[in-house]
Design a protein that fits this description.
- The chain is about 45% helix and about 15% strand.
- The protein has about 325 residues and is of the alpha/beta class.
- The strands form 2 sheets. An 8-stranded parallel barrel has the order 3-4-5-6-7-8-9-10, surrounded by 6 helices. Strands 1-2 form a two-stranded antiparallel sheet.
- α4 links the parallel β5 and β6.
- α9 packs across α10.
- The chain is globular.
- The two termini are about 35 Å apart.
- The structure holds flavin mononucleotide (FMN).
């Protein structure tokens, strides 16, 4: 069974992917309850943290109930990244994860995120120095390469392992692909099949059904999978995958009551964490996904996403329960 440093994980763990504006403490808590084995924060800018930018600092908040939790950071400057390690350590996470995969222009143009895939020596150097700086396990999340012609992920993963990286999660796309096309898991399997690899190799990209998760385990032989988009509005995805692994059958549909309960708790946890205004505002993006499939839902959705007062949003949840009682989800 895989281990990240001293953290013992179950067989084929399911990891909640770091997702900006999504993987905040309330969402992580919901995913954890539904079986996520490791959760990661949204990515946090090392420069932002050093400047003490409020938004970056707030992202350091973690809760006991979500452990093991990894704080993900990005940056390209050695000094800044080392200072960031010191700052992050104070939040006492279980893991520090380095983002070497973000394809967004404003990150990449500073040589951070996937930008570092153009300078593998620097990627290895940053990892090595960060490993030396902390007793916490350092993990890496990256992509296959900068573009199709420069995929050297087998060699890159081995070098990262050799400097002390404790696990690697690989999104099966290049930076050039952004999110287009299908994730290719074959190169990830090649990393795993490298006889010299002994740290866990987690696959990422397009795991959107229990069958796909099983394929990643049984066909590609990876150590676990990291799940992103499939969990948005569906924190039950982790449970659905685990149920499928255990029984070979699909988990029953998630009921309306469970969905309303999740939306309600999501909102309440967000308010508790960020305050009424931000909590109400930032939870809005999740409702469409929680209630996907319900016909003629617009009227209720509008109520949820237009009011600034949580009382109205909670009332809209009650109305949904009443209006769609007995609705059966696929
Ligand atoms: C809304 C959103 C935000 C993301 N933010 C991050 C991030 O902060 N750090 C990171 O490493 N990857 C981030 N990603 C990429 C995901 O972690 C993941 O690699 C990608 O979505 C592929 O996995 P999936 O097909 O399971 O979604 C983000 C993806 C999405 C959709």
């Amino acid at each position: 069974m895989p281990k990240i440093g001293d953290i013992q994980l179950p067989d084929f763990p399911l990891l909640l992917a770091p997702m900006e504006d999504v993987s905040d403490p309330p969402f992580r808590a919901l995913c954890k309850e539904q079986g996520a084995d490791v959760v990661y924060t949204e990515f946090i800018s090392s420069e932002g943290l050093i400047r003490d930018a409020a938004k970056s600092v707030m992202k350091l908040d973690i809760y006991e109930k979500e452990r093991p939790v990894g704080i993900q950071i990005f940056g390209a400057e050695l000094d800044s990244m080392l200072q960031t390690v010191d700052i992050v350590e104070k939040s006492n996470p279980d893991i520090i994860d380095i983002n070497f995969g973000c394809p967004v222009k404003k990150v990449v143009c500073k040589g951070a995120g996937a930008g570092i895939l153009k300078d593998i020596d620097l990627m290895v150097k940053l990892t090595e120095e960060m490993v030396k700086r902390t007793k916490l396990p350092i993990t890496v999340k990256t992509r296959l390469g900068w573009d199709h012609d420069s995929i050297r992920i087998v060699e890159v993963a081995e070098r990262l392992q050799d400097v002390g990286c404790q696990a690697i999660s690989i999104h099966g796309r290049t930076r050039a692909q952004m999110y287009k096309g299908n994730a290719d898991w074959k190169p990830i399997a090649e990393v795993k099949n490298n006889q010299r690899m002994h740290i866990p190799v987690f696959g990422n990209g397009d795991v959107d059904s229990p069958e796909r998760a099983m394929e990643m385990r049984d066909v590609y032989g990876l150590d676990g999978c990291m799940i992103g988009r499939a969990s948005i509005g569906n924190p039950w995805f982790f449970r659905q995958v685990k149920h499928f692994f255990k029984t070979g059958e699909h988990f029953r549909p998630i009921t309306l009551e469970e969905r309303v309960d999740a939306a309600r708790r999501h909102l309440q946890m967000s308010i508790d964490w960020k305050g009424e205004k931000l909590g109400v505002f930032e939870t809005r993006r999740h409702y469409t996904n929680y209630f996907k499939g319900i016909p003629n839902f617009k009227e209720y959705r509008m109520k949820m996403v237009t009011s600034d007062d949580s009382v109205d949003v909670f009332a809209a949840f009650d109305e949904v329960l009443e209006a769609f009682s007995g609705y059966e989800f696929a």
